[in-house]
Each structure stands twice: as C-alpha cells, then as structure tokens.
C-alpha cells in the first residue's frame, strides 16, 4: 500500500482508560492485513529508553548530541533537543514509509482523533466537555455515549481499524 503520505489517526484519552491496549490491538490487526504500521507516543514525562552502564547510555551521557544503536532487526535513536519536534514533523521524518501511523496523545495537534472513553470511570469527554474539538472523528467506548460523532465499540478493535481505513483519514 504505502501511499506518499501515510494515513494518520491519533488516539486521546484520560490515563487509565485503555488507550494503549486499543492501539496495540489495532496495530496487530493492521499488521495482519499486511500494512506497514508506525506507532508514535507522546510522553509528557521524562523517560529513559537506555540502561545505565550500557555503551549506548554511556555515549549519550558523555555528551553525544545524537546516539543511535542498530542491530539486524531494529534501531533506536536518542537525540537531544530544546523543544520537542511537532507531531507533523516527526511523522514526515520518521514514518513516511508507513501505510498507517497510530499516534497516542498530541491532543492539541490538528490530527484527526478518536477519543477512548469509558463512562464508568465518570470522567468527561476530553474533546467535548469544555471545548468542541473539531478534530474528533469518533469516540471508542464500552458503553453508549451521547456525542455528535460516530461511537465505535472499544472492545471491537477491528471495527476501529475498519473505520480508519474506510474513511482514509489523512494528517
């Protein structure tokens, strides 16, 4: 498939709602369809992907601006920056070879988004409570939700994937 620009869909939700589980299941199903999938996750906290004492960690800690570790199966890049690159820039630079990019977070971006919502958690919709987010294209929920966009069954990730592929959402 691999279009010139990948299909992109962001998933937003309150922490603990099941967003990562849904995205994980959609990735698996899309992979089974033979699609090249990219996954991009925003982390509002500081994170470490390397282990102290390992050569790659030592090189970065010594002051390398960028450090990449590569094996026959995968690569990882650690790069310093003063401000995080925008999601559009990251997609263009790192995921242009993909058919579909699933993004977790970036709720303030202009990406089309599906909000994961569980009414039993008694939290308001992020995209419809205080603001009307025009980028919201659907809500994935485990119960009925009164909202002005399609409501997808959170427990049916194939339905979520079909929605994304059928609509052909572009970033």
Short description:
By secondary structure, this protein is an alpha/beta fold. It has 4 helices and 8 strands; from the N terminus they run E-H-E-H-E-E-H-E-E-E-E-H.
Structure description:
The chain has four helices and eight strands; from the N terminus they run βαβαββαββββα. With 171 residues, the chain is of the alpha/beta class. It has one domain (7-47, 84-167): P-loop containing nucleotide triphosphate hydrolases (Rossmann fold). It has a six-stranded parallel sheet with strand order 2-5-1-6-7-8, with helices on one face. A two-stranded antiparallel ribbon has the order 3-4. The longest helix is centred in the N-terminal third of the chain and has 14 residues, at 19-32. The protein starts with 6 loop residues before the first strand and ends with a helix.
